[in-house]
Write a structure and sequence with these properties.
Blueprint: E1 5-8, E2 25-32, E3 37-42, E4 47-53, E5 56-60, E6 69-72, E7 77-80, E8 86-89, E9 94-101, E10 107-108
Antiparallel strand pairs: 1-2, 2-9, 3-8, 3-10, 4-7, 4-9, 5-6, 5-8
The protein binds copper (II) ion.
Residues 16, 41, 43, 47, 86 line the site of copper (II) ion.
């Protein structure tokens, strides 16, 4: 599996990997390679996801389930309330913009899925 790369932001990929304790608006633009998986996780604040290119498949639930996801195409948006377990995956490359507000963080439902521990 390739790596998700951050295209534009002031910090490293904190969208799905790290945290930011400051209270401020955050924007991350991320490029996901084909066949990428983001295991189920949640954030402490609202996450607004806008797809810029490609198809980004997202779903809500405690476990990544490709059958329970929705394909989001360029221009589509998904808004997730705080503490909502969600997951995503790609088949082809996709570029996505995340907007959130700090304090920001990511908690994986299954701690073993946490890429920061790998
Ligand atoms: Cu998320």
């Amino acid at each position: 599996m390739g790596r998700c790369s951050l295209i534009a932001a002031r910090s490293k990929d904190r969208g799905h990997r790290g945290s930011d304790q400051r209270s401020r608006p955050l924007t991350f633009r991320l490029k996901f390679p084909a066949n990428y998986r983001i295991p189920a996780h949640w954030h402490p604040a609202v996450e607004r996801v806008t797809v810029l290119s490609g198809t980004f498949n997202m779903g809500v639930g405690d476990k990544l389930d490709m059958k329970k996801s929705m394909p989001l195409r360029p221009g589509s948006m998904m808004i997730l309330q705080p503490n909502t377990n969600h997951f995503a995956w790609t088949k082809g490359e996709a570029v996505v913009q995340l907007n959130g507000t700090g304090p920001w963080g990511v908690t994986y439902v299954n701690p073993a899925d946490d890429p920061r521990k790998k």
